[in-house]
Design brief:
This protein has 152 residues and is an alpha+beta fold. It has one domain. It contains 3 helices and 3 strands. Strands 1-2-3 form a 3-stranded antiparallel beta sheet, covered by helices on one side. The chain is rod-shaped and about 95 Å long. The chain starts with a helix and ends with a strand.
Length: 152
């Protein structure tokens, strides 16, 4: 009789064990999904940084190709719209406009006002190219900048 009682008391124990196991596995899978999401955002941020460096090198090569009129590439401030690019040299103006357009195409949304570029030169002839964009889509903390200094 005692054996029968203990079997009756044990009914449903394996079901509870299975439910606890399912809850533990579900929490583990949610953790894995969260880690995957963070890895994707980090990858997107890294891609955008790489794109910024490539765009910086692109405008610097355009400036080197038009070395005689390199001074026309200095923007005096952040350019966020291809239509804002105005330079004394027509080729420089066209290069700046296509550079800003290309920045918007690779770094963000076409009508995004946070993707901008700036080119400046100091008295020693050191050129500084700055690319700025919104890193919020990739999980970053708002605006981000890549600054490159070189001599032409």
């Amino acid at each position: 009789m005692r054996l029968m009682n203990s079997r009756r008391n044990m009914r449903g124990v394996s079901l509870i064990e299975v439910l606890v196991s399912v809850v533990i596995v579900a929490i583990g899978l949610l953790g894995i999904a969260a880690m995957q999401s963070m890895a994707l955002r980090g990858g997107q941020s890294s891609l955008e940084s790489s794109q910024a460096m490539m765009q910086t090198q692109s405008i610097l090569e355009s400036m080197r190709a038009n070395r005689a009129n390199a001074g026309a590439y200095a923007t005096g401030g952040m350019l966020c719209d291809p239509g804002e690019a105005s330079a004394a040299n027509a080729l420089a103006e066209e290069d700046l406009a296509s550079w800003i357009e290309s920045l918007k195409g690779t770094m963000g949304v076409e009508d995004d006002e946070s993707t901008c570029g700036q080119i400046a030169v100091d008295a020693a002839g050191t050129w500084t190219v700055t690319v700025q964009w919104d890193d919020g889509r990739a999980g970053g903390g708002g605006e981000r900048q890549v600054v490159t200094e070189t001599r032409i």
